[in-house]
Amino acid sequence: MDGIRVGNRVIGTQGPVTVGWENIPKVQGGPVKQFIFTWFQPAALFGLLAFYYYAPNSIAKASTAIGIGIGFKVLLLGLEWVNPRYASWRLTWKELVTDLFYVGLGYTILRIVDDHVGSDVAIKAIQHHFDMDKFKWFLGLPLLLQAFLISFIFDFGQYWMHRGMHNWYPLWLPHSVHHYITQLNINKGAVGNPVELFLIGLGIGGFFDFLPRAALLAGALGMTISIYQHINVRFNSPRWWRFLFNTTEHHSLHHSQDYEATRSNYSNSYIFIDRMFGTCIDGEAELLGLENGRRMSIREQMTYPFTEGWKTLRERFGRQTAVPAE
Amino acid sequence: MNLRFIDWIWHVRGSVPLAPGQSSNDVFRKIDPLFRERGTRHETSNDTLTFTKKDQAAQDKMSVFDSGILWVENRIAGSVMRYHLVSRALLFCFLAPLLFIGFAQLTIALYKPDKPAAEATAAKAKKTLAKDMAMPLNPIDKFLGAPEPDKPKDGKDKPAAGRNRKPSPTAAYVFASLFAILYVVGRILEDVLVKRLFMRTLAGAPVVTASDLHRPYQGTV
Question: Membrane-spanning residues where (chain A) (predicted)?
């Protein structure tokens, strides 16, 4: 494959990719279907923002957000069934069980680990020792601006954490497991080695618990934007949407079998962060994964960073075998 | 203990009736494309086909199975193809509820309610933050009609929001139940699907392999 030049890089020499919005297929079907799959994303974003903005305090709380989050994911699973992007990404029973296993880890054991050694501990320490009066100016900002700043700061941190994972071998090892997924479905974002899930879970969410409504709005931004990274649904996302936000198209390119394409589109929600730092590529891919799309078992996903790291250490620092002289 | 009493959990057995006059060679030739998937090895000998799979593709029609044996039995009533398939995924799903019940027990053990020191610290933190919550709404939000935040009481009875809440065992119990349901669904569904796959393939339906599903390449690269 010759590849295509995008800026200083040549994309698609190792795996098939599609570059440029004009080459990406559109939603097929009648006008109603076209309408739904063009406006679903903006409608969900603005609808949920309006809900959290105006809901009474008794409703605008974390438990409501959890319920809405689960309901929204079930709805998106339904959309995957109705309008899949690729037949080769269809959700099977085995894929669903695998994905939900990792979602379950995130809600249970990783939550406990995070509570003991993760960002929650650091945040609690800061909250106890920091003079919160210094943040009063932030509390005086309009709610939507507070929410955007919370989600932007989080996404900016995630961008660099993710970019670091693709550029520094010790971080790549745990992240590489996530890149062995061979299709995108709504829960695939949770699939990865627990070490990586812990690292990527490091965030500032807990820091803004004292701003319940702004935190909920920031959560709504994340839920209705970044959730589409891993989804098997064909949308005709509006032009402004794909300029500002990360989409399945962007993220499928990030997961493609082409090495150079994987080194792009690092952000979670705001693809304009990638545009700012020159790492954005507009396009998509169907063939995903590493090692030509080898699907990794859960057992290997658990051990791979350690076995692979050990192998590398032995290669680098192990005793050299003497080669007999001829 | 005889494993046969419990191995139905992850072993799927069944049979498919064959059209009269079909030899085992004919049968295995027809279903051969099913075993031309990535990561699959198979061999035929003495009227028996054995296969193993490793890192099978997600869209492999038999991806849920890791090994198995198929053979043809000739009986007076007619010939049948019998199969005995083994699935680690089914076993995993069967055991997953136990793992999540374990996580629930761990959560209960780690977050016992008798931790006065932790509660005092949390109450202190909330008190500090409650002061900040008394900030009035921005005029723009007032104009747009956003509800005023609740007036803080004394910081004691205010529930903590978001991630600062204590982990609860509920999530682990929910996932344990979910995997129990998924196991029942999977055990029935995969049994039915594989039987239908064999029947259709033997009837001459074309086999769609995982790689056949990929869209013919039309892109720019």
Answer: 35-55, 62-82, 137-156, 214-233
Does the pTM exceed 0.90? no
Q: Are A54 and B146 in contact (CB < 8 Å)?
A: yes
Residue A188 Cα, gap to closest chain B Cα (Å): 13
Strand partners, B14: B83
In a mutational test of the B interface, the residue from A13, A59, A96, A108 whose CB has the highest number of chain B CBs within 10 Å is A108
Q: What single letter denotes the amino acid at residue A294?
A: R
H or E stretch at B83: strand B78-86
CA B141 to chain centre: 45
Residue B183 near residue B94 (C-beta atoms within 8 A): yes
Q: What is the CATH number of domain B3-91+183-210?
A: 3.30.310
Give tens-digit pLDDT for A143-168. 999 999 999 999 999 999 999 999 99
Residues 22-81 of A with CB under 8 A from B: 23, 53-57, 60-62
Break chain B into its structural domains and give their ranges.
Answer: 3-91+183-210, 93-176
What pLDDT digit, counting tens, does each position of B145-177 carry? 999 887 766 544 444 444 556 778 999 999 999
